[in-house]
Amino acid sequence: MTPASRSILHIVAHQDDDLYFMNPDLVRSLQDGDAITTVILTAGEGDGINADTNDPERASVAPDFARYSTERGCGLRSAYARMATGDRNAPWLREPVDLVPGFAAERFTLAGRDDVCLYFLQLHQGAPTQRGTRTRIHELWEGALRTQATLPAHGCTIGEVQHVTREQVIAGLAALLAHLRPSAVRTMDPDPEHDGGKQEFVCSDHVDHTTTTQFALAALARHRDAGHNPVVEHYRAYANRFWGYNLDSVAVTEKAEYLATYAGIDAPPGCPHGTCERCGDRQLGPDPFRSTHMMSAAYRYSPATDWLRLGPGGRLNAFGVLAGRLAFWTETGPASGEWKGPFVLGEGWLTPTLAVTGRPGGPAELLGLRRQSVVGGGVTVDVVHTVQDPDGNGFSGWQSLENPDWAQGDGRRQREVGVPSAAVDAAGRLYVFVRNFEQGMGLRRRETDGSWAPWESLGGTFVQDAGQALTTENGTVELYVPGKNSVWRWHQTEQGSPFVLDDSLKTGRPATGGVTAVDSGGGRTCLYFREAGTQQVMAYRQHADGRWPGSGAGLGGQGGTGAVAALWAPERGAREAFLAHRGSAGRLVVSLPDRDKNVSGTHWRASGEMFTHAPAMAYDASGAVVVAVIGMDGRLHVRRQLSPLVGSPLGPWRS
């Protein structure tokens, strides 16, 4: 995986969205030498007043929309220059670029790093209308506006106001995709959760964020139709404030430094780029730490760690989503170490996270979320299911399972459905779990005769969108879901029985981003998750009598975000399991058991390049452990134990 093969496109609404919600991933990609392009859709002019929002005198300041947009753009270029070169004052080449006929954008290319570009589309969010209101980008998307004006920044190489249609925006983004051919696309949350603490429906996010994502997805669909299949990552925005923060103090401090540059806190007198009077977004004030937006960088669709499994014919299979379609890789033979794929299958648009389950060694059963446009411009999101062919080489079509809020008249409710988790019990029953609109857990089960029961509620309050289902050695199913302050557990007393809430499990506060549970033998489950605020990996292993410890074991882990992949090692403990996660540099961090079973503890080692989502681990047909990631280049990358012995090291990366 080389920088030349990694081209990353960010599509955001405002000049600070990537700094708040996509960092530190953004700065890591810049530091790794990846080709980076960021598109800012709106002019981001807000109320036109570039003064601290806490300043009591700001009410007396006259708005200047073009000036504020200009100064925000200058601040963003300073932040990018500092992230990429260390010099906030590094110069940029400024030029107009025709995206499609009638719609041009202004492109800035960083001097000395011509693979770092910013495109400003400048859609005016405050343009006056004949009815006395001001335009918003969601009105253009929804069809309430036929065209939307642009707001040229000061010194803009595109001096005239453009009046842009919905189609021109989509076609312009599609043209950029065709030109750049990115291996990965980062954008925002198309279906953010509501504020669960309010009685009425209050969306937690900014409407510009969600609308920008709708435009991005429409352009990506056209790009896919042209034969291209990038990885897509969606980042949560304001909803991060609801859940345990998932960045440690080092990451937050670094993030704050670049936000301070964007805000102009460290700006010298005058503007180094010669475009504005006071470089930076002064609305942030003198202290970037006062905003909770910077405390997390979390995916909207929490990545799973169960997407690598041993399937039919003794071959390992890996599953992912590329450009909204199922991607499938398979070994050429049992424990061969050779792979073929990806085979990109199916229609519709899947969100990035799949749940993968099935009977051991048998065909995989996959669950995903499908987004579909409907008549009138709306969107539906349903849970879909497919089964691998018995020979392991293909799949049946997607079957809709709807979702727990499908019957609701308000489409906003069913669009919030969480990513699925799933498990098959010993008798072949399939259990599918998702978070519902009420922020509890919904369940749908397929009985042994193949019939599907209706959706039911398991209860729960303020659960995160990041659960994991587990089949125990007794053939029963358990569900673990992180909440605001602890991890929730539902379990069965026997196969096929109803699920019971276990109120005896009390954990520390989990960070947003997922949990992992593994059967550790003897009727005991071991739970792994990250501790909010520190990002340390924590382990809670059930006692033999079914009770849970009062506190967890801290395992370290080199920082980072996301769920921890785990495989249980025979005759070892929670600290000596095979563990893998995404470290603070975005690279794979692995802990393997020592050869000597008397040597306890974790032994974390980082390797490889930055990757997307979360890693997965599985035993191959020989009993060797294999760890896999999907890189920023959209390819599958694997490491395999040199032998199936517990203490054997991992071999080199293979792509």
- Which oligomeric form is depicted? single chain
Q: Outline the biggest β-sheet.
A: 7 strands, mixed
Strand content: 25-35%
| Helix-strand makeup class | alpha+beta
Characterize the structure shown.
Helix 3 crosses helix 7 (249-263) and helix 5 packs across helix 6 (207-225). The protein has a domain at 3-293: Rossmann fold. The radius of gyration is 25 Å and the shape is globular. It has 8 helices and 37 strands. The strands form 9 sheets. A 7-stranded mixed beta sheet has the order 3-4-5-2-1-8-9. The protein has 655 residues and is α+β, with helices and mostly antiparallel strands. 54% of the residues are buried.
What is the gist of this entry?
This protein is of the alpha+beta class and 655 residues long.
Please outline the helices and strands.
Layout: E1 7-12, H1 17-22, H2 25-31, E2 35-42, H3 65-85, E3 92-100, E4 103-110, E5 113-123, H4 137-142, E6 147-149, E7 163-165, H5 166-180, E8 184-188, H6 207-225, E9 231-235, H7 249-263, E10 308-310, E11 316-322, E12 325-331, E13 339-345, E14 349-350, E15 355-357, E16 365-373, E17 379-387, E18 399-400, H8 411-414, E19 421-424, E20 430-435, E21 441-446, E22 456-459, E23 468-471, E24 477-482, E25 487-491, E26 500-501, E27 510-519, E28 525-531, E29 537-541, E30 553-554, E31 561-567, E32 578-582, E33 588-591, E34 604-607, E35 611-619, E36 625-631, E37 636-640
Parallel strand pairs: 1-2, 1-8, 2-5, 8-9
Antiparallel strand pairs: 3-4, 4-5, 6-7, 10-11, 11-12, 12-13, 14-16, 15-16, 16-17, 17-18, 19-20, 20-21, 21-22, 23-24, 24-25, 25-26, 27-28, 28-29, 29-30, 31-32, 32-33, 33-34, 35-36, 36-37
Helix pairs in contact: 3-7, 5-6
